[in-house]
């Protein structure tokens, strides 16, 4: 399986951006740009690692089920 540390960091970063309501309220354009950037990085990640991803993780990422993807990656092996 591909190393997933980078993907975990991207998924956590996305959650942090979404949860930062103060940033969103203060500068919505910048907040949206940050959300777009991290979401694009998450969407691009499987193209570089797709051959070694397990089917469930591929499914979560293909359907933008990012919370489920993160939970899947964080569960004990």
Topology summary:
Elements: H1 5-19, H2 21-26, H3 28-49, H4 55-62, H5 66-74
Helix pairs in contact: 1-3, 1-5, 4-5
What key attributes describe this structure?
78% helix; mainly alpha; 77 residues
Characterization of the model:
By secondary structure, the protein is mostly helical. It has helices at 5-19, 21-26, 28-49, 55-62, 66-74. It has one domain. The protein has five helices and no strands. The radius of gyration is 13 Å and the shape is elongated. The mean pLDDT is 92.
Question: In a few lines, what is going on in this structure?
Answer:
With 77 residues, this protein is mainly α. Helix content is 78%, strand content 0%. The mean pLDDT is 92.
Mean pLDDT over the residues: 92
- What overall geometry do the principal axes of the alpha carbons give? elongated
- Class computed from helices, strands and strand pairing: mainly alpha
**Count of DSSP H/I helices:** 5
Estimate nothing, just give the exact number of structural domains: 1
Low-confidence stretches: none
What is the N-to-C order of secondary-structure elements (H for helix, E for strand)? HHHHH
Rg of Cα set? 13 Å
The end-to-end span amounts to 12 Å
Reported for the largest beta sheet, the result is: none
What helical percentage do the residues reach?
Answer: over 70%
**Count the strands?**
0
Strand-residue fraction? under 5%
């Amino acid at each position: 399986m591909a190393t997933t540390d980078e993907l975990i960091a991207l998924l956590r970063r996305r959650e942090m951006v979404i949860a930062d309501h103060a940033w969103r309220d203060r500068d919505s354009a910048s907040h949206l740009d940050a959300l777009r950037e991290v979401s694009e990085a998450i969407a691009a990640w499987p193209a570089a690692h797709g051959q070694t991803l397990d089917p469930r993780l591929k499914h979560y990422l293909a359907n933008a089920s990012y919370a489920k993807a993160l939970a899947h990656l964080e569960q004990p092996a």
